[in-house]
Amino acid sequence: MKVEIDMGTASGAKSAALDLEELLATRLLVQGNSGSGKSHLLRRLLEQSAPWVQQCVIDPEGDFVTLGDRFGHVVVDAQRTESELTRIAGRIRQHRVSTVLNLEGLDVEQQMRAAAAFLGGLFDAERDHWYPVLVVVDEAQLFAPAAAGEVSDEARKLSLGAMTNLMCRGRKRGLAGVIATQRLAKLAKNVAAEASNFLMGRTFLDIDMARAADLLGMDRRQAEMFRDLARGNFVALGPALSRRPLPLVIGPVETSARSSSPKLTPLPETPQDAHDLIFMPGADEPVRPVRRDPPPPVSTAAILAQLTKPKFEVPVPEQPVFAIIDEAEREAGIETVLREIIEDPDAGFRSDAVLYQDFLVRCRIRRVPGEPLALPAFRRRLAVARAGVAPDSAGGDAWNIALSLSENLPDDLQGVFLLLARAAVMGAPTPSNAALARAYGTHSERRAQRLIAYFEEKGLVVLRTDFHGKRILAFPDLGCETAPADPLADDGEGTAAAAE
Questions:
Q1: Where is the AAA+ ATPase domain (predicted)?
Q2: Residue 18 maps to which CATH number?
Q3: Shared-domain flag, residues 376 and 335
Q4: Closest to 27 in 3D by CA, of 129, 152, 165, 128
Q5: Domain range for residue 109?
Q6: What pLDDT, on the 0 to 100 scale, is given for residue 494?
Q7: CA-to-CA distance for 121 and 87, rounded, in angstroms?
Q8: Residue 60's closest CA among 102, 109, 117?
Q9: What element of type H or E holds 308?
């Protein structure tokens, strides 16, 4: 049976008819800024279709409860438990009663949870009760937000899942979603994309006008028309409305919302006793608790005197509460553990995080006193240890400058730089590519060559070769250079040369 309801007047003074049976199969999306007539449109749709199809309205502001006086809708107060709302929704489908779920008075998260429970009950009804239902959701961006907001992730997932089920899978269960939103950009795309019918009202933001034009198949240059739409004027498109974008004006309604747009009214005449009316309590005015006056402010001199007052000194115990840590013993234990890690042939090819865990375990085994090194300090000590110089035996201004320069390098490059700097300070031969690759934690000698090029780009070293083709690295900031050495020497030879 084909039922057409009158939505108002289309262009050319023709009646704007909406195919109700087609709407049940293809769903509807309404978009318009606040004050564009969006709620008026939904009310017109509900009033015209009330005799033909069961209706369920998700009403966050309590504007549609007046439908019960004229069309017999049962108002369901959402201030109930979620399980109770789910059971009520199942009975609504069983007995085919039109209802309005009033969410007024709840905060946003409570509204999302209540709407999710109610829609879940409609969706999970028994197959014998899958009668056609027009499910209207006002302010749909609250229940299917495009991005996470101030509500909890659990509430957002519940509400978004219920809205997705309504728009994506509800058709086979007889549920026809009609969602209205102030902004398309705030509505989840997977929910909006399931609607095949659109009614676009006035909007001003470029992103919303562009999305509205895309949904209606209009040119981007035509999107400016949405700024000029008057209140109650919409552009319709869809199989239930029109095959081409059709401007229409929504017709009048029989019921009205409990709240409406504010109207200017003339101010009353100022009474003679206005002062007494404001500052004197009325006879029937409830008595409220008196607010206590704040304490008088403290003078600056009193604050300074309090700050300069000698503090109570805690007596020093004769014996220390905690055991005194021998720093020399602690440093010796840390150096021993670092040396064990460096001597491991596979340590050069492990990440700093893995080596740090090994370091902590070894410190516990050796009972190194005091707090263990933090990860940044461990990386620094490991880089110095890989260079083969203990902090207490390095000495010299050149080596201290090298340590300072290495602090500006990435953690994985500090050990390689200090290895080269140590060879230059000691006048030792330049480490081979194989030795540098192992210090960097790789088997690739080409990568070692690129490390030297990187240091040269930073202005830390100057690379040159002698007449025999051997490599020499000069450090301008240190005032020294390495002895000539063959860069292609094998790993053992390069390591031995660097250790001399």
A1: 24-348
A2: 3.40.50.300
A3: yes
A4: 165
A5: 4-250
A6: 39
A7: 6
A8: 102
A9: helix 300-308
One-letter amino acid of 98: S
Domain identity same for 382 and 413:
no
Residue 18, CA distances (Å) to 30, 247, 317, 319, 326 in order? 14, 13, 90, 91, 88
For residue 324, the model assigns a pLDDT of 63
Instruction: Give backbone dihedrals phi and psi of 76, rounded to 5 degrees, phi first.
Output: -105, 115
The total domain count for the chain is: 3
Residue range 476-497, pLDDT digits in tens:
888 888 888 888 876 544 333 3
What is the residue-averaged pLDDT of the chain?
81
Cα three-residue angle 347-352-354, rounded to 5 degrees: 70
Please write the tens of the pLDDT for every residue from 400-459. 788 788 888 887 777 778 888 888 888 888 888 888 777 777 777 787 778 888 888 888
Which tokens go with 316?
């020093």
Residues 192 and 341 in one domain: no
* C-alpha distance from residue 30 to each of 38, 136, 179, 234, 356 (Å): 7, 10, 6, 9, 59
Q: What is the dihedral of CA 77, 180, 116, 112, to 10 degrees?
A: -80
Tokens linked to 83: 């399980």
Sheet with 471-475: strands ordered across = 462-465, 471-475, 480-481
